[in-house]
Amino acid sequence: MSNNNAAIVEIAQTASRFSSSIVLQAENKYIDVKSILGLFTTLVSNQSYELHVHGSDAEEAKKALSEVFQKHGLHFTVVEE
């Protein structure tokens, strides 16, 4: 679980650099990626996630978070709306 903690902290810190709304969807739960607590209760490495990003810096946020997710081996898709 310790590598997961590093992933959670890095994801939240990365998300916090952006003004966009960044939400992770896991099954029927929606988590604000800027909330470390929300990530702790949801992020498990064998699950697949959808990343929803809305806002003025959404493109940069998607790119930065995609890199963090890949680095930690998390399965995700970025939802293009």
UniProtKB/TrEMBL annotation:
<dbReference type="InterPro" id="IPR035895">
    <property type="entry name" value="HPr-like_sf"/>
</dbReference>
<dbReference type="Pfam" id="PF00381">
    <property type="entry name" value="PTS-HPr"/>
</dbReference>
<dbReference type="InterPro" id="IPR000032">
    <property type="entry name" value="HPr-like"/>
</dbReference>
<feature type="domain" description="HPr">
    <location>
        <begin position="10"/>
        <end position="70"/>
    </location>
</feature>
<protein>
    <submittedName>
        <fullName>HPr family phosphocarrier protein</fullName>
    </submittedName>
</protein>
